């Protein structure tokens, strides 16, 4: 196929150069966006008088024919094609002839083209990712509302800390995903700006109106600086960051699922359809979805760091290094589009052993803070209350008792202010109900946050 450049070169490119330079094996996914850009560009050319009305319609017809050939699989990249832009232009020339086909490139460069197409691709996939995020958030919220009073041990440092509601814990994994949705929405505003019309770097000289292209492509305003428009990839990196953050947020939940489904925890069971077996150990049921989600978070972070590293030392304006923006971010998209549906299915079908969770909730003296809080409500300074509760824990630990089990006399011996009415707060439900501050684990507060979460969730 005819190259986009070559006149000033004596021979063709060395095969090693061609092999290194070629990007069609990954940028072919941009082919339909490239055609949409060409339709829009043809309109701008016609509006500026560079194409007659007849030429314009022949151009659109030729581009439609290319779309048909792409869809049918007739049009594929050949080894001679450097990138998707060159391949499609060569194909256009073969459909509409060199006279008309040769006119489309006027006033545009692959530099402003590619900067636009990657935005279009990411905007579309941000929609897909956001729908999958909503499904996952709904799955978590569904489990939370199905278990309004299930209690469990809340942990810090992975040690028993204070009893909490399972719903509260689950929703703590949903809120970061809601913020990821907000991040995508906010990113979208920046991603919608249009680089088309910036040319190679210095802007257009043919009187084309970039607003026509932007409007046709459903983008926002043309970018105000042609150098920035063709050379910056912060919008791509920002998408890669949000993708990495989603990966990390899902991975944190994955780690809980992996722990909860161990024999030692025994808090949750995976549905057969969402767990895997072992090739040698017949009894095994493994949390592979959670593990792959956790593993792929590393890959998403790697895509972000790789891309940022590519960008960090680049001089203005376009440099070929920028071709390296695509594979990592395409991989991030593909990874999320695989992980999120599987993870949502796993969460939707998870079952909980709520009796076991409740039984373990008060273990490890997790009600000790309730003793201290009770004393504070009686007017004891917290530092002293902490000491008294600590002495009670020690007393109980030495004798193998729970906090409510010492006699009234034992309480009094530990401290006269430790009166028997303390036992009223030494229940899991009492402890949970008492944490009724904003955002707390009391059932009324958890119901409130579930309603707030549901109201906050909407796709882009
Ligand atoms: N394939 C390139 C990219 O992905 C776009 C082409 C720009 N090439 C050039 N020689 N100016 O960034």
UniProtKB/TrEMBL annotation:
Reaction(s) this enzyme catalyzes, per UniProt: 2-(N(omega)-L-arginino)succinate = fumarate + L-arginine
Pathway membership, UniProt: Amino-acid biosynthesis; L-arginine biosynthesis; L-arginine from L-ornithine and carbamoyl phosphate: step 3/3
Stretches assigned to the Fumarate lyase N-terminal domain: 19-302
Gene Ontology biological process terms in this record: L-arginine biosynthetic process via ornithine
Enzyme class: lyase
GO cellular component, as recorded: cytosol
Subcellular location(s) per record: Cytoplasm
InterPro entries to which the protein is assigned, alphabetical: Arg_succ_lyase_C (IPR029419), Argininosuccinate_lyase (IPR009049), Fumarase/histidase_N (IPR024083), Fumarate_lyase_CS (IPR020557), Fumarate_lyase_fam (IPR000362), Fumarate_lyase_N (IPR022761), L-Aspartase-like (IPR008948)
EC number per UniProt: 4.3.2.1
Pfam families per the UniProt record, alphabetical: ASL_C2, Lyase_1
Residue ranges of domain Argininosuccinate lyase C-terminal in the record: 365-433
GO MF terms, alphabetically ordered: argininosuccinate lyase activity
Alphabetized UniProt keyword annotations: Amino-acid biosynthesis, Arginine biosynthesis, Cytoplasm, Lyase
Family: Belongs to the lyase 1 family. Argininosuccinate lyase subfamily.
Protein name, as recorded: Argininosuccinate lyase
Native source species: Pseudolysinimonas yzui
């Amino acid at each position: 196929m005819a190259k986009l450049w070559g006149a000033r070169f004596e021979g063709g490119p060395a095969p090693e150069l061609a092999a290194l330079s070629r990007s069609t094996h990954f940028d072919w996914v941009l082919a339909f966006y490239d055609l949409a850009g060409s339709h829009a560009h043809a309109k701008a050319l016609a509006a500026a008088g560079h194409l007659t009305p007849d030429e314009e319609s022949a151009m659109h017809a030729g581009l439609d024919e290319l779309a048909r050939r792409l869809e049918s699989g007739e049009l594929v990249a050949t080894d001679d094609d450097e990138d998707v832009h060159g391949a499609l232009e060569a194909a256009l020339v073969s459909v509409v002839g060199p006279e008309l086909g040769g006119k489309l490139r006027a006033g545009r460069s692959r530099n402003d083209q590619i900067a636009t197409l990657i935005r279009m691709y990411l905007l579309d996939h941000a929609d897909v990712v956001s729908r999958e995020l909503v499904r996952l958030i709904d799955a978590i919220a569904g489990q939370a509302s199905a278990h309004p009073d299930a209690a469990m041990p809340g942990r810090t440092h992975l040690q028993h800390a204070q009893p909490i509601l399972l719903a509260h814990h689950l929703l703590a994994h949903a809120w970061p995903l809601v913020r990821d949705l907000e991040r995508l929405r906010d990113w979208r505003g920046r991603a919608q700006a249009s680089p088309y019309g910036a040319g190679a770097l210095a802007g257009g000289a043919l009187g084309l109106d970039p607003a026509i292209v932007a409007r046709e492509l459903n983008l926002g305003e043309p970018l105000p600086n042609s150098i920035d428009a063709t050379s910056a990839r912060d919008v791509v990196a920002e998408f890669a960051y949000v993708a990495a953050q989603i990966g990390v947020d899902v991975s944190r939940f994955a780690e809980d699922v992996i722990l909860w489904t161990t024999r030692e925890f025994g808090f949750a069971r995976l549905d057969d359809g969402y767990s895997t077996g072992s090739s040698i150990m017949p009894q095994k049921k493994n949390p592979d979805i959670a593990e792959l989600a956790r593993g792929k978070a590393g890959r998403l972070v790697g895509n972000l760091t790789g891309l940022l590293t590519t960008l960090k030392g680049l001089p203005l304006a376009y440099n070929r290094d920028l071709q390296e923006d695509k594979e990592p971010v395409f991989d991030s998209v593909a990874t999320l589009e695989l992980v999120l549906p599987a993870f949502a299915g796993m969460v939707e079908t998870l079952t909980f052993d709520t009796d076991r969770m409740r039984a373990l909730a008060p273990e490890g003296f997790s009600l000790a803070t309730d003793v201290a809080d009770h004393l504070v409500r009686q007017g004891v300074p917290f530092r002293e209350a902490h000491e008294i509760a600590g002495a009670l824990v020690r007393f109980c630990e030495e004798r193998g008792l729970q906090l409510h089990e010492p006699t009234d006399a034992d309480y009094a011996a530990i401290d006269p202010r430790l009166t028997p009415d303390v036992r009223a707060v030494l229940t899991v439900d009492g402890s949970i109900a008492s944490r009724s501050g904003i955002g707390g684990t009391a059932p009324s507060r958890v119901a409130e946050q579930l309603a707030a979460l549901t109201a906050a969730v909407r796709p882009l």
